[in-house]
Specification:
Length: 221
């Protein structure tokens, strides 16, 4: 096997083990391979290994890759901070946007014609400059998304803070998700967990993992 195939298989086994320990089925969990800075050739190799969900967090790079790889059956996830002025361009190629975090972005994603799947990003830190909605502002944001045509709310997205146990942070996210479901019963998904903490995320109910280096290897210089 190639190095990429070995890493992918190792992560798939890790996900299956964590799902089993959580009393869940691995098939409930979507693994998004984040390919920031990696070449299109790596994504083609991933596709040949059965990967269909690809994540990017820089618009220009994502847009170029989506165009170049249009012949592949890929589902593009935008997982980075998104400028409102770029929202319409991103939704042209992305099936899922994981970083909805302010009213101006919600308004920019409005569409009467097409629907995009979206996660509301919640800020688990006390730093207001970090991406995400503050927990005490979560319900108004949910209501804003639900009232906006063109966005199908899937649930919450979160990044575990570096100064806190990932398991504790994801447990907090899971509790916040219960508040979301009181307003949007269909919003049952949780986008959380990366290369170093996906096991903790699965144990706390993650449905979408955003995994980069554990699968792709180190980013090119």
């Amino acid at each position: 096997m190639s190095g990429l195939e070995e890493r992918l298989e190792a992560v798939r086994c890790g996900i299956a083990d964590a799902a089993r320990d959580a009393g869940r089925e691995p098939g409930e969990i979507t693994t998004i391979v984040v390919t920031k800075f990696h070449p299109e050739s790596l994504i083609r190799e991933l596709a040949s290994l059965g990967v269909r969900d690809i994540g990017e967090n820089r618009h220009q790079e994502a847009q170029a890759k989506a165009r170049a790889l249009a012949d592949l059956d890929l589902r593009w996830h935008f997982v980075g901070q998104l400028q409102s002025k770029k929202a319409r361009q991103v939704r042209a190629y992305a099936s899922v946007i994981h970083s909805i975090d302010r009213e101006s972005l919600v308004d920019a994603l409005r569409s009467e014609d097409e629907e995009v799947d979206g996660f509301i990003q919640v800020n688990l830190t006390t730093d207001p400059n970090r991406g995400g909605v503050a927990p005490d502002e979560l319900e108004p944001m949910v209501e804003r998304v639900l009232a906006t045509p063109g966005i199908r709310l899937l649930g919450l997205m979160a990044v575990a803070p570096l100064d806190e146990s990932a398991r504790v942070a994801f447990a907090r996210t899971r509790a916040l998700a219960e508040r979301v479901r009181s307003l949007a019963p269909a919003a049952t998904s949780l986008s959380m967990g990366m290369s170093h903490d996906y096991r903790d995320a699965i144990l706390e109910g993650a449905t979408h993992l955003r995994i980069g280096t554990a699968i792709t290897g180190k980013r090119p210089a």
